[in-house]
Amino acid sequence: MPRRSRIQTTILKYPASAAEFEYKLATGQDPTHPVNTRAQEALNRIREATSGKLDIKLFPANQLGSDTDLLTQVRNGSVEFFNLSTSILATFVPVAGILNTGFAFKDYDAVWQAMDGDLGTYVRTQIAKTPIMTVSKAWDNGFRHITSSTREIKTPDDLKGFKIRVPPAPILTSLFKALDAGAAPINFNELYSSLQTKVVEGQENPLAIIATARLYEVQKTCSLTGHIWDGYWILGNKRAFQRLPQDLQDVVSREFDKSAADQRADIAKLANTLRQELSGKGLQFLEVDREPFRQALAKTAFYKEWKGKFGEEAWAHLEKYSGKLG
């Protein structure tokens, strides 16, 4: 009997329909993407751990607008949380783009040492100088690879004049322009139709995005260039986050951190299975030697230009994990 009365007290105190804080988390990814499955688990745990005081609803697949629209919404507080890739965040916080420096990270060991170390801390500090902030450690978007519906991309020369969609992210546009490709910045929600109608010949994304967005339906080959690593940040509107009592803030960060670790592991596993799955759907994979691409990039002004934009301090943090660039 006493046990039942305790449960009743809890139910009366925190009725499920009357959350003290009702917030939104928007993402651009398909509902089946690990970002959304792991985010939903975090939201469930947050609701449970706060006894229903904080209820965050998930809106995947750009339901509330394009990535650039949502970045505006999280800045003004009409959306409280938003999952955004570092490449697009760089349009608002330029130094966030340093994580997307071409051919900087050789493997995941280097990536996570950087993201959970000094480079990640530096970037998070810069983001926090704006109306938004990061509320957890970085999530994984993956190493990006080039797909094509026309020519096969095997060497830097194959990129010359190649019409490729890139996100509206300056460093990606700059990378492909440096390699003489025709880079076209297009929002993700218009990507499939742009490939289908041949506005562009190809695009570049991690395998998980190629799979969940069904890009294999409109592309023939995938060149494993791994030209940049891209991460995701769970961003919060600073005022909305600070409205939460400290104990609720701690729960949010703790549960998003847990889901970040789970999502990183998901992407690592997917890297092993997605290639087989995508091959089965007709996408042909091409192994490429990344070294000639790195050398071709180093001969351009790319590294020098971006070092100048990001600044000596940020670049020193990057080279601590990437080795000397350029």
Describe the structure.
The chain is α/β, with parallel strands linked by helices. 46% of the residues lie in helices and 17% in strands. The chain is built from 14 helices and twelve strands. It has helices at 2-13, 34-49, 67-76, 86-89, 108-115, 118-127, 170-178, 191-196, 207-212, 238-243, 246-280, 290-298, 302-310, 312-322, and strands at 21-26, 54-59, 81-85, 132-134, 139-143, 145-148, 163-166, 182-185, 202-205, 221-223, 229-237, 284-286. The strands form two sheets. Strands 1, 2, 3, 4, 5 and 11 form a six-stranded mixed sheet that branches. Helix 2 (34-49) links the parallel strand 1 (21-26) and strand 2. The radius of gyration is 21 Å and the shape is globular. Residues 1-16 have low confidence and may be disordered.
Structural category is: alpha/beta
Termini gap: 72 Å
Shape, per Cα inertia axes: globular
Overall number of strands: 12
Strand residues, percent = 15-25%
Number of helices: 14
Main pleated-sheet profile: 6 strands, mixed
Q: Estimate percent helicity.
A: 40-55%
Mean pLDDT score: 93
The residue ranges in which pLDDT falls below 50 over 5 or more consecutive positions are 1-16
What is the element string, with H for helices and E for strands? HEHEHEHHHEEEEHEHEHEEHHEHHH
Rg, rounded, reads 21 Å
